[in-house]
Design a protein that fits this description.
The chain is an all-alpha fold. Helices cover 69% and strands 0% of the residues. It has helices at residues 10-39, 44-67, 80-115, 119-144, 163-189, 196-207, 210-227, 232-255, 260-269, 273-279, 283-300, 303-315, 330-338. The longest helix has 36 residues, at 80-115. The N and C termini lie far apart (74 Å).
C-alpha cells in the first residue's frame, strides 16, 4: 500500500476525494428525502441536482482510479504509457467538471423559479439560466477540442491553446455566477411579507454559495503554479484537490436551501406558488391581491373576531320563529324572548344567559367552536 511522503501525495488525493464524495452523496440523499417528505413530488431541480451528483461521482472515480495510479502527486519518472493515460484521464475529468458545475447552478435557479411569483423575477432567472447554459456549453466544446486532433487529450505533450487563460476566464465567469446566486434571493425576499429573521435565514442559506467563490480563487492559484511547473503531473495534486472541493461545495450549497426550517419559511412567505399555478391564476395579480389582504387583515385587528362570532351565531340552528317567512337571527330571538314584553302574563322571564326553554338544548362548547 502506498505511503504518504514528500514524493508521493497520491494517497492524500484519494482520501480527500473519497471523503468529499461521501459528503456529497449524504447531502444529496438528505436533501432529496427532505424535499420528498415536504412536497411528495419530484421537481425539476431534484432531477438537476441528482444529475450533478452523478457527474461528481463519475469524476471522483476517474481521479482515484485513473489519475492517481498513473502518477498524480508522485515525484518519480513515469513510463510513456502512464503519461499518456494520465493525460486522457485528466481530459475526461475536465469534461465532467464543467457540466457538474453548470447543473449545480441550474438547480439553484430552478428552485428560485418555483418559489417566486413575480413575473419580472422569473424573467431575470430565465436570463441567468440562459447565460449559465451558454457559458457551460461554450466551455465544454472548447475543452473537447483544446488540443490539435487526433489527440485532443494531450494537454502536456500536444499542441493546445492557452489552457491557463481558458481556465482563468472560466473561473471568473463562475465567480460572477455564484455571486449572482447570492444576490438574487436577497432581491426577491425584499418584496415578501415575512419577518426579518426569516429573511435572514433565506439569504444566509443561499449565502453559503460564497464558500464556492473562495474555493475557486484557491483553485485558480494552484492551477497557475502547477501547470507552469516542469513536474506538472506531480504538482497538479493540489489543484485537483481544489477542483474536488469546488465541485463538492457547488453541489452541497445547492442542497442547503432545502433544510426544513428554510423551506417552511418559503412555504409561508412565498404564498405557496405551486398552489397558485394549479389554480391558473396570474402571478402578479395574486401577489398584489395577497398583499392587499394582508394589509387589510392587519388593519382590522380584533374586530375580525367579533365579526366571525356573530356570523357563527347567526348560522347556528335554533328554534323555529316564523314571521311571514322572515328569518330572525338567533341572537335577536333570544333577546326578544328574554324581554318582559315577550313573556305571557304570569310567567317568569327567562334568564339572559340561558337559551329559550322551547328550543333544543345546546352544548356550551358550540359558542366557542
Amino acid at each position: 500500500m502506498p505511503t504518504i511522503s514528500g514524493d508521493n501525495y497520491g494517497p492524500v488525493v484519494n482520501v480527500i476525494t473519497w471523503f468529499l464524495l461521501v459528503a456529497t452523496i449524504i447531502t444529496v440523499i438528505t436533501r432529496t428525502a427532505m424535499r420528498w417528505a415536504l412536497t411528495r413530488k419530484v421537481h425539476l431541480d431534484d432531477a438537476v441536482i441528482l444529475a450533478a451528483a452523478g457527474l461528481a461521482i463519475a469524476q471522483s472515480v476517474v481521479i482515484t482510479a485513473g489519475m492517481v495510479p498513473n502518477g498524480l502527486g508522485q515525484r518519480h519518472d513515469l513510463s510513456g504509457s502512464q503519461r499518456v493515460l494520465f493525460q486522457k484521464y485528466y481530459y475526461v475529468a475536465s469534461l465532467l467538471y464543467i457540466p457538474c458545475i453548470c447543473l449545480s447552478n441550474l438547480a439553484v435557479l430552478c428552485l428560485l423559479q418555483t418559489i417566486t411569483p413575480i413575473a419580472s423575477h422569473k424573467k431575470l432567472l430565465v436570463a441567468t439560466e440562459a447565460l449559465t447554459v451558454t457559458w457551460a456549453t461554450t466551455a465544454e466544446v472548447a475543452m473537447a477540442f483544446q488540443c490539435k486532433l487526433p489527440t485532443p487529450w494531450a494537454v502536456l505533450d500536444g499542441q493546445c491553446f492557452d489552457l491557463i487563460t481558458f481556465w482563468y476566464c472560466f473561473g471568473v465567469i463562475q465567480l460572477l455566477l455564484d455571486i449572482t446566486l447570492v444576490i438574487l434571493p436577497w432581491i426577491f425576499v425584499r418584496h415578501v411579507q415575512m419577518s426579518r429573521h426569516r429573511k435572514r435565514v433565506i439569504v444566509s442559506c443561499f449565502g453559503t454559495r460564497l464558500t464556492v467563490v473562495a474555493a475557486v480563487v484557491a483553485q485558480l492559484a494552484f492551477f497557475n503554479s502547477a501547470f507552469r511547473s516542469e513536474q506538472a503531473i506531480f504538482d497538479l495534486w493540489s489543484e485537483i484537490i481544489c477542483t474536488e472541493v469546488v465541485e463538492t461545495l457547488s453541489v452541497m450549497t445547492a442542497c442547503v436551501p432545502h433544510l426544513k426550517r428554510f423551506f417552511d419559511s418559503i412555504e409561508s412567505g412565498m404564498l405557496r406558488n405551486d398552489d397558485l399555478r394549479r389554480r391558473g391564476l396570474a402571478s402578479d395579480d395574486v401577489y398584489a391581491a395577497s398583499m392587499s389582504r394582508q394589509a387589510a387583515s392587519s388593519a382590522m385587528g380584533p374586530a375580525r373576531e367579533t365579526i366571525n362570532l356573530n356570523m357563527h351565531l347567526n348560522a347556528m340552528p335554533g328554534p323555529s320563529t316564523d314571521k311571514g317567512h322572515e328569518v330572525i337571527p338567533i341572537g335577536m330571538r333570544w333577546s326578544q324572548q328574554a324581554g318582559p314584553s315577550s313573556q305571557p302574563p304570569g310567567q317568569q322571564p327567562a334568564p339572559l344567559n340561558r337559551p329559550p326553554t322551547d328550543g333544543p338544548a345546546r352544548d356550551s362548547d358550540s359558542f366557542t367552536r
